[in-house]
Write a structure and sequence with these properties.
The protein is built from 14 helices and 27 strands. The strands form 7 sheets. Strands 1, 3, 4, 6, 9 and 13 form a 6-stranded antiparallel β-sheet that branches. The protein has a 5-stranded antiparallel β-sheet with strand order 2-5-12-7-8, with no helix packed on it. The chain has 3 domains: about 5-195, Galactose-binding lectin (Jelly Rolls); about 225-250 and about 285-380 and about 570-675, TIM Barrel (Alpha-Beta Barrel), CATH 3.20.20.80; about 420-545, no CATH class. By secondary structure, the protein is an alpha+beta fold.
Length: about 700
């Protein structure tokens, strides 16, 4: 009997014979799911699985629950696997659902924790299609291709630190924080390729004079410098004919909607059960923005002999496009701690616009964004772009200074500031002062993001793991002493055996009393942070909005503290769509929310990495954009979403961390992606009516 899911495969014409389970030359099957029973070395974590009929063979059907990181987990029969003869691991996926599903595979060494001693790969399983999830091991040996997140001909290198492929202890297939339950078919897990350097795959040079990949062609690739003028003139005609986006006022608000009180500044208001931004003139405003509208994208050129078809001499008009970095990170370390960088994007702007390229580029960017239906210039955009902006924008600040950090633990973005250090409040005042002074009198400035993706998760355990004189630790210990009186009382309540207050640590297994006390402290810590920043902003820019700190992940208590203080709570949400139940009902913060970052990428236009959310091609990338924006607009709590970012990253990696993602609305040769632009124009044109009609239901 053929299962329902197997029938999907047959109806769609997907190959379903046992031949698909046979290893190709150079491949070795790890698991084919041919047996009737589930593999004995497989563990189910928040998943359900069954072997189902698959044509003439079988495959594994997995039901993933709506929790963080549901997975199927495989271990070797012996202590480890030796996979050193192979380049990576792959598997076939079938998605019987109607929307794409992000699927990950993780390969572990001993001690793997999701960031260390493991590699992770990711793919979007497209609806109704057979998709291959392929992970190239990061062994630290990438041949000449250092400093790149994705490499030519292979695509993204596995996320995570390098691993020893001769000592693999486990691998798992998981979903990254799914918003709803999903069902997938998994088959033919196999090892492929051969280990060793990658350099022999790609002839040198592989970057042309425009910063494009040499060894492929695609629609929109620039072949000759003379094309710049033709493209510029053609786009000028298009932009001149689309000066004003339909049904928008001068702020990008909705002139056909209700007229509310105009205060002369952007503000927030809940109207018919939905949060909105309100323009200075009292019109409803849904913020559609693009981050990083700027020209600073650079890549390392030192230490990369033979990569580039052309580099200019350090003279004349191109001189300012060179720069040096001495930043202490792995990118600079690769060439002895410092190195020369170059901007191919700026070189192309000079070719396209001439001596006055900076002004011409900026004016073109404004015209593009407005003609595409955007109404906000997003975070980290260039200072001159904000200074001359004819459209609303957000500003940003980061609290920096010589205050203490939580020394007991580090997060992905580094150590968390210790907000109980008196120097933190002083630093907050000075850090926001400059940017607030610059824009406090500008009614086009919606408000301020302060900080980005902080390591909130380290507070809980890191505070007590810090030295005894850590200000945050002192505050927590005082609270515990007030609560329990004696160390003995705390030990009884927490189930700990600390010998003195200085040696007290947060236990790995926390009982109800311990969780309650630490929850209270995490909230108090976060509340101190947000109150401090709010006070600093209010003293310098009292008329503009405090837009929060752009959460990536954070404990519930931290998000609650932000909602209790900030005018808008911000999140960077790299997902397929925004699920409404995550922000409504019992999860409703009763505050407006905004998305500071999201994006989608593909590998069909000469780029080597998709970014954080992959799509099959530019067409699917465009559909994903429209789908995401519609899901945000349908949610009553959200007042906008901002795309990250305006331009693609350099194909050889941005100089500080090697990202080389296809995440731009425009390419390195300053040409817009037509599919993405058309999708944006269509969804932006409908967004106000769509959101307002939802509010009347």
């Amino acid at each position: 009997m053929v299962s329902i899911v197997a029938a999907f495969w047959i109806l769609l014409g997907v190959a379903s014979s046992t031949d698909s389970l046979t290893a190709l030359p150079g491949e070795t099957v790890v698991e084919s799911f041919d047996a009737e029973a589930l593999p004995q070395n497989m563990e189910l974590n928040n998943t359900e699985a069954a072997v189902v009929d698959y044509g003439d063979g079988r495959a594994l059907q997995v039901n993933f629950k709506k929790v963080d990181w549901p997975n199927v987990f495989f271990t070797p029969s012996e202590r480890t696997w030796d996979w050193s003869a192979f380049a990576g691991i792959a598997m076939d996926l079938y998605n019987p659902e109607r929307e794409p599903v992000d699927v990950c595979v993780r390969v572990d060494n001993e001690g793997a924790d999701g960031a260390n001693f493991c590699n992770t790969g990711r793919v979007a399983a497209e609806p109704g299609e057979l998709t291959t999830l392929r992970l190239y091991f990061n062994t630290g040996d990438t041949g000449p291709f250092w400093g790149m997140r994705g490499v030519p001909e292979k695509g993204p290198v596995a996320h995570g630190a390098k691993i020893d492929t001769s000592r693999i202890t486990a691998f798992q297939v998981f979903l990254p924080r799914p918003q709803i339950p999903h069902t997938l078919i998994l088959d033919n897990i196999r090892l492929f390729g051969r280990g060793g350097p990658l350099g022999e795959l790609v002839p040198m040079p592989f970057v042309d004079r425009f910063g494009q990949y040499i060894h492929a062609d695609w629609p929109g690739k620039l072949m000759d410098e003379n094309e710049f003028d033709a493209r510029r003139r053609r786009e000028e005609r298009v932009l001149e004919s689309a000066q004003t986006f339909p049904k928008r006022d001068r702020f990008g608000g909705w002139p056909d909607g209700p007229k509310l009180e105009g205060t002369g500044w952007f503000r927030t208001e809940k109207v018919k059960g939905r949060w909105w931004l309100v323009t200075p003139e009292g019109r409803l405003f849904f913020s559609l923005g693009v981050d990083c509208v700027g020209t600073w994208e650079r890549t390392f050129v030192d230490g990369r002999d033979g990569w580039f078809e052309w580099l200019p001499k350090e003279e004349g008009l191109y001189k300012e496009l060179f720069g040096y970095t001495t930043r202490t990170h792995s990118m600079a370390d690769a060439i002895g701690g410092k190195g020369r960088t170059f901007s191919f994007y700026c070189a192309n702007l000079i070719r396209k616009y001439g001596d006055q390229w900076k002004t011409a580029w900026r004016n073109t960017a404004y015209a593009r964004l407005r003609s595409w239906g955007f109404n906000t210039i997003g975070n980290w955009s260039q200072a001159d772009v904000l200074d001359h902006s004819p459209m609303p924008f957000v500003a940003t600040a980061n609290v920096s200074g010589d205050f203490r950090r939580i020394e007991g633990e580090t997060g992905y973005w580094g150590k968390m500031a210790d907000v109980f250090d008196p120097k933190f409040a002083e630093s907050a005042q000075s850090s926001v002062g400059g940017v607030a002074k610059r824009y406090a009198d500008n009614p086009l400035c919606i408000g301020y993001f302060v900080d980005n993706e902080l390591s909130w998760q380290t507070i809980r355990a890191g505070t007590l793991a810090s030295p005894p004189d850590q200000p945050g630790r002192v505050e927590l210990v005082h609270h515990l002493q007030d609560t329990y009186g004696t160390l003995e009382g705390l030990n009884v309540a927490w189930g700990t055996d600390a010998q003195d207050w200085d040696s007290l640590r947060a236990p790995e297994r926390q009982n109800e009393a311990c969780r309650r006390d630490l929850d209270r402290f995490v909230y108090a810590f976060a509340r101190r942070y947000f109150d401090t920043v709010k006070t600093a902003l209010a003293s310098r820019a009292p008329n503009q909005l405090y837009l929060g700190c752009r959460f990536s992940t954070a404990p519930q208590q931290v998000v609650r503290a932000c909602a209790d203080v900030a005018d808008v709570v911000s999140f960077n949400l790299y997902r397929r769509t925004i699920a409404p139940d995550a922000w409504t009902g019992e999860n409703d913060l009763d505050k407006p929310l905004i998305i500071g970052e999201f994006h989608f990428g593909a590998l069909d236009r000469g780029m080597f990495d998709t970014g954080l959310v992959a799509t099959q091609d530019q067409g699917e990338r465009a559909k994903s954009y429209a789908r995401y924006v519609r899901s945000v607009a349908a949610n009553p709590a959200f007042v906008g979403c901002h795309w990250f970012q305006y331009i693609d990253e350099p194909i050889t990696g941005r100089f500080w961390d090697g990202e080389n993602y296809n995440i731009g609305f425009v390419t390195v040769v300053d040409s817009p992606y037509p599919e993405l632009v058309e999708a944006a124009k269509k969804v932006h044109a409908e967004i106000y009516e769509r959101r307002w009609s939802e509010s009347r239901r």
